[in-house]
Design goal:
The chain is mainly beta and 442 residues long. The chain is built from four helices and 37 strands.
């Protein structure tokens, strides 16, 4: 089909659609092989009509202006905007509901959707089995979920700015991206703030979350009952917790950062076979934290988690560097740096745990050990906590005795003689140099 014939077809389609909707017209081209077309719309009614009549593979382009209400997509199309095209849900419901696979949303501003979390109000709601949905380069701001998907696969969310309502209590906000029962998702290069969780993944598998920025949320990334996930290159700031791995398996959390968390930088809660590697956690601090409540700020909190590896991380300037409790003994901990934490280690179990691996332990700021052969490893094991530490954690009212001569004598006696079964943490090969690893690069 030559250019003249294409123009004739385009002119015929313009004439045919002119009577139906003056503000929707064919603007760019018709592909002679697929007959896919691009349509421009400029108001709410023309957008709704176009979404009802559009065919698979077509593109709907929103011209500058406001599009009020709620819109449904039932065909595999691209919906894109130019300039300041705004979809406004007018404070209720779902702004865009996607029913079809193969939908792409890009360059849109979506705002003011509903805040009813029980009704799953969302900026973009992806229905079950709507696969291969791609949301990119858009701005979303509203009370409920930013992007919600359940029981589907192949979801991509990238280069978006997603913001919740800062005026709402954190747990009353929706998550920035909520994926439940989703297999294979890729979430990258987004900025997400003022939400409940930045990215929430439940009973999902094979997710990749990388190079995102999270701010002012409950958690940056929250895993629940997931498997085979990877997160790297993310930055989290001013949250309750950075990265929460709960009842999940085979999560690879590496080369991420978190600062200014109230509760924890990293949480391993009843999770297994996961790797926490080359992350940086700093300034985990709870202003209202108390030892008797166990709610101090923790660089990493390991609770009932087994068969995980915590290696080559930096945990610094926090209330507690690492806190382990309730069955968290079966993990490998080595090659980490614990720097300038008020308490480096808090472990209240009854076992003696070795935190080194193949002749390599951890670096502990404040520890002054001898290194007679100059290999960078102390000649003697280091005990970052012992039975007396545990006693003071269990009975914080006795902490005023910690620096007393009696306690100093007890610590000396304990170091010289075996008194009962030893408990606590021992690092048999403590590192003496604060070597900065190749962190936060991938």
């Amino acid at each position: 089909m030559n250019n003249f014939a294409l123009k004739q077809v385009a002119n015929g389609l313009k004439t045919a659609t002119k009577g139906l909707c003056l503000s929707a017209w064919l603007t760019l081209f018709i592909n002679p092989l697929t007959m896919a077309a691009t349509y421009s719309v400029s108001d709410t009614e023309s957008l709704k009509l176009q979404l009802e009549t559009v065919k698979a593979g077509d593109t709907v382009l929103l011209l500058d202006g406001e599009y009020l209400g709620h819109f449904e997509i039932h065909q595999p199309i691209t919906l894109t905007g130019e300039g300041s095209a705004i979809i406004d849900a007018q404070g209720r419901g779902r702004a865009i509901a996607v029913f079809s696979s193969g939908v792409s949303l890009k360059n849109l501003t979506i705002q003011n959707w509903g805040g009813d979390l029980y009704e799953l109000d969302a900026g973009v709601f992806i229905h079950e089995q709507a696969e291969r949905v791609h949301i990119e380069s858009s701005r979303l701001q509203g009370d409920g979920f930013g992007i919600y998907a359940e029981n589907t696969k192949h979801i991509i969310v990238n280069n978006n700015i997603i913001a919740g309502n800062r005026a709402l209590y954190k747990l009353d906000r929706g998550d920035g991206v909520y994926l439940k029962g989703v297999d294979v998702s890729v979430i990258h290069d987004n900025q997400i703030s003022d939400v409940r969780d930045g990215v929430y993944l439940e009973t999902s598998t094979n997710s990749q979350v990388f190079d995102n920025r999270f701010h002012s949320a409950q958690y940056g990334i929250h895993y629940m009952y997931t498997k085979h996930d990877e997160a790297y290159g993310n930055e989290v700031d001013s949250v309750d917790g950075g990265y929460a791995i709960m009842s999940s398996e085979f999560v690879n959390l590496h080369h991420n950062q978190v600062s200014n968390a109230i509760d924890f930088g990293v949480l391993l809660n009843i999770s297994k076979h996961s790797i926490v590697n080359n992350n940086q956690v700093s300034l985990a601090h709870n202003p209202q934290g108390a030892a008797e409540l166990g709610n101090e700020g923790k660089g990493i909190f390991i609770y009932g988690a087994r068969d995980n590896e915590v290696t080559h991380n930096l945990f610094s300037t926090s209330d507690i560097g690492i806190y382990m409790a309730m069955g968290g003994e079966g993990n490998k901990v080595y090659g980490n740096q614990f720097v300038n934490n008020q308490i480096q280690v808090k472990y209240v179990g009854d076992a003696l745990l070795e935190w080194s691996h193949q002749g390599k332990g951890n670096f502990w700021s404040g520890y002054m050990g001898w290194d007679s052969n100059h290999d960078g490893i102390a000649d003697k094991p280091y005990r970052p906590n012992d039975s007396l530490d545990k006693l003071f954690w269990l009975y914080p009212e006795a902490r005023f005795l910690m620096n007393s001569p009696v306690v100093a004598l007890l610590r000396w006696v304990q170091s010289q003689f075996d008194i009962g079964e030893p408990t606590g943490i021992v690092d048999s090969f403590p590192l003496l140099h604060n070597v900065s690893a190749d962190r936060v690069q991938h």
